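Q: what sequence does this backbone want?
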């Protein structure tokens, strides 16, 4: 089976973990600090704050930005649910706007109409490895004095107009095993603001500025040195592996037939966390079954938009329709693109997709 994802961990990661174990400093320590410094450098920002997951990175970033009860945060309904749930954790309410049907990212043209007196922040999600259109988003945010929290959990190393995602507002990243780089579990917050950095660190560690003196309600959202050791080695390999993802995506773009392949807008560098096609004509699920039967893994990211999830409908009362997000949920299919693929794997993926689409054209 050609898997949809494949964490690539080598001897370098093994040695780094063993060195941490042998040191006796296995919780948050010097490796976390080194990982933060290196990741900040990759993103082109002053500060990076490591956390226990991408979700906790989002939660801490929102709290540090002052988001709380009664506030609204504008975001996309087409995402993994952690993006919106993190807003709920603060007591605020997600306000959804629809997506651009080409990029699958939040449509900047729809954001301003969703702003109310309660709007505190915009949370754009750089989905599948492609940056949102940050220039218009930042212009809107500045005009209305709104915070911007970037969900870059799927876009490590992606660029927009020469700048890395996570460097426009407050960035958040995930290091879950299927991501472009991993620390087994873990997350990161990025920013340039000194006060914000200090506040994130305090929230991350039980609200402490000074040991055993707790200034506010905080959490235990720390990363361990074991995780950071893995992350440091993975970060060294990120650029080369992102380039391999782009090469794999280019091959698929050139050779797949009958499906709508992803695009990279001018000025963007896509890192293809997922290679997501549209399958028109109601054939997505049949294609996925066919691929499974013929040894090619695939996945639907995401089959139910957040505003259609049971909890959001029945408990929170979401009723608004977002037609582009809903149509995408019926048509998207992600195919393997990870750097562990061989040329034979790529040829098999193309052959299986094309033979299905060729024999099932309506």
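A:
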């Amino acid at each position: 089976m050609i898997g949809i994802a494949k964490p690539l961990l080598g001897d370098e990661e093994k040695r780094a973990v063993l060195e941490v174990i042998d040191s006796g400093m296995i919780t948050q320590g010097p490796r976390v600090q080194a990982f933060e410094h290196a990741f900040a450098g990759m993103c082109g920002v002053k500060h990076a704050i490591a956390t226990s997951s991408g979700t906790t990175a989002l939660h801490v970033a929102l709290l540090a930005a002052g988001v709380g009860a009664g506030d609204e945060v504008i975001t996309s309904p087409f995402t993994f649910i952690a993006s919106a749930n993190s807003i709920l954790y603060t007591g605020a309410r997600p306000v959804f706007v629809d997506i651009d049907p080409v990029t699958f990212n939040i449509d900047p043209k729809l954001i301003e109409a969703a702003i109310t007196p309660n709007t505190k922040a915009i949370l754009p999600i750089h989905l599948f490895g492609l940056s949102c259109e940050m220039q218009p988003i930042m212009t809107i945010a500045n005009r209305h004095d709104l915070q911007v929290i970037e969900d870059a959990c799927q876009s490590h190393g992606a660029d927009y107009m020469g700048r890395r995602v996570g460097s426009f507002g407050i960035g958040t990243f995930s290091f879950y095993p299927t991501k472009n780089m991993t620390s087994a579990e873990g997350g990161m917050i990025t920013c340039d603001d000194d006060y914000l950095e200090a506040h994130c660190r305090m929230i991350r560690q039980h609200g402490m500025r000074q040991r055993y003196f707790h200034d506010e309600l905080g959490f235990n959202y720390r990363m361990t040195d074991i995780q950071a050791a893995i992350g440091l080695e993975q970060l060294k390999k990120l650029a080369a592996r992102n380039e391999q993802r782009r090469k794999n995506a280019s091959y698929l773009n050139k050779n797949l037939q009958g499906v709508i392949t992803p695009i990279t807008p001018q000025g963007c560098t896509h890192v293809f966390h997922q290679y997501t096609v549209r399958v028109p004509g109601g054939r997505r699920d049949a294609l996925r079954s066919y691929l499974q039967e013929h040894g090619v893994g695939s996945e639907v990211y995401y089959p139910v938009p957040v505003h259609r999830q049971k909890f959001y409908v029945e408990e929170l009362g979401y009723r608004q329709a977002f037609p582009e997000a809903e149509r995408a949920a019926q048509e998207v299919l992600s195919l393997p693109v990870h750097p562990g693929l061989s040329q034979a794997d790529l040829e098999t993926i193309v052959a299986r997709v094309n033979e299905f689409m060729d024999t099932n054209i309506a």
